Hints:
The chain is α+β, with helices and mostly antiparallel strands.
Amino acid sequence: AGFDILLTANNHCLDRGKKGMERTIQLLDSSGIRYAGTYKNLSERRQRYPLFINRNGFRIALLNYTYGTNGIKATSPNIVNYIDKNTILQDIQSAKARQT
């Protein structure tokens, strides 16, 4: 068994703080594991999100958000996708625009 995609925005993504989140991103990048939900900075989020999967003739956009991070705040320039109606609507529109 194995996996090649992770959804990283969750209530534990900042348990080890800024360094822990950045280390996780570094390990995923170096392992070739694609992910959605946490990012080093806004530029990286714009490049990588939404995450698209192409399988068997289908193109699927993965969106990932969390309700919170147990009181630990993401520090600039790091990005965690929090549940926010306006952000989610913008991300859906972005995914639709890039669907073809």
